[in-house]
Amino acid sequence: MAAARRSPGAADAGLGYEGPMSDFVTGEQYEITAGPYSAVITEAGAGLRELTHEGGHLILAHGPDEPAPAAFGQLLIPGPNRVDRGRAASR
Question: What is the model's pLDDT at position 33?
Answer without folding.
Answer: 96
